[in-house]
Amino acid sequence: MHRVPKTIIGVAAGVLLAAALFIFYTFDPGTHAFFPKCPFLLVSGYKCPGCGSQRAIHSLLHLRIGDALRYNAFVLPALPYIFLGIYLEYFGGKRRFPRIEKLFFGRWSAPVLLFVIIAYWILRNLL
Amino acid sequence: MNHYFYIDGEGKQKGTFSPEELGREGIKRDTLVWTQGMEQWKRAGETEELNFLFSDTYGRFRTVAEQPSARYGRPGESGQPQALPPMPKSWLTEAILATFLPLLLCSSILSLFGIIAIVHAAQVESSYSRGDYAASLESSRSAAKWTKISLWIAAGWTIFLVILMILLFVFVGSFRGIAEMGDLLNT
C-alpha cells in the first residue's frame, strides 16, 4: 500500500469526488430509490445524526441553503470542516497554521464534536 | 539514529532505547527489536544499526568505559528526563474524518470505528506529554489501525453501492427499455 504513488491516489479521489458531485447534482436522493438508505433508520425507525445528508448535499448543490439545513443541519458546517482537515493533514496546512490545527483538530475537538453530534442525534428524534 | 523497543527474557516489551543504551541493557544477538519503519520484530543481530553491539571491539570498549558510574551525575544531565523522539503521528485528524465521512455516506455504523480511533488518537498526545513514549507509539498504531479499518470498509461499502446502482440500472433498463432510461438521466 505504501508504494502506491500519491498522484494515483489523488487522481482516483478527484474522479470519485467529481462522480459523486455529478450524481448528487443530477438525481434527487429524496425521489430516487437507488441511493443508499441508512441502516440505523431502517432497523430502529430513528434518524441517525447523518440522515438527510444526501438530500442536503443535493439541495446545497442547487443552492437551496434552507432546505439543506432542514434535511440535515450538519452538512453545511461539516463540509468545510472536512476539507479543512484534509488540507491541514495532506497539503501542508499543518505547518503553516499550527494554531488552527490545534483549535479544530486538537485534543478537545473530538470530545466536543462527539457531544454535539450526540446532542443533535437525540434532539432531532425528540423534536 | 533510531530508538528501539526490545523484548526481554520474560517476553516483556521494553523501550525505547538508543543503540548504545540497548548495549547497556545487555541485549543479545537473538533479542527481538523493533523501531519505527520496521515491518516487524527482528533479531538484533540482523539489524544493521545494531550490528556493532556484537563486535568484539565494542564489547571491550564498553567494559572499560562503563565501569565508573559514568552514566550519572554528568553536568547537564542531572535529573533531566531524556529527550524523547518526536511524537508519533496522532492520527487525530484522520480519525475525526473517519467518524464524519460515514455519516454522509449513510453508513453510520462505521462511525463507531472512527470513535475507537479517536479514543486511541487522543491517548497518543496525552501519553507523549507524560513522557511515556512506548504507550504513545502503541496508541498511534491502534489509532492508525482503526482509522484504516474504517476507511477500507467505507471504500468497500461504496464500491458495493456502485455495483448495486449499476445492477439496478440494468434491471430497470431491461424492464422499461433503454429510451426511458435516457429520460431518467435527463430529469
Describe it for me?
- With 127 residues, chain A is an all-alpha fold.
- Helix content of chain A is 70%, strand content 0%.
- In chain A, α1 packs across α3 and α3 (53-61) packs antiparallel against α4 (65-71).
- By secondary structure, chain B is α+β, with helices and mostly antiparallel strands.
- Chain B has a 4-stranded antiparallel beta sheet with strand order 2-1-3-4.
- Chain A binds chain B through residues 16, 26, 33-40, 48-51, 53-54, 57, 74-75, 78, 81-82, 85-86, 88-89, 101, 105-107, 109-111, 113-114, 117, and chain B through 92-97, 99-109, 111, 115, 118, 121-122, 125-126, 158, 161, 164-165, 168-169, 185.
List descriptors:
heterodimer, A: 127 residues, mainly alpha, 8 helices, 70% helix, 0% strand, globular, B: 187 residues, alpha+beta, Dna Ligase, domain 1, four-stranded antiparallel β-sheet
What percentage of the residues of chain A does DSSP assign to strands (E)? under 5%
> Roughly how much helix do the residues of chain B carry, as a percent range?
55-70%
- Domains of chain B, number: 2
Q: For the CA atoms, what is the radius of gyration of chain A?
A: 17 Å
Count of structural domains of chain A: 1
Question: What is the chain-wise order of helices and strands of chain A?
Answer: HHHHHHHH
Which shape of chain B, going by the Cα principal axes?
elongated
Walk across the major sheet of chain B and give the strand order: 2-1-3-4
SS-based structural class of chain A? mainly alpha
Q: What is the oligomer described by this structure? A: heterodimer
- Number of extended strands of chain A: 0
So how many helices of chain B? Answer: 6
Most extensive interface, residues per chain?
A: A-B, 36 and 31 residues
Unreliable runs of chain A? none
Mean pLDDT of chain A: 82
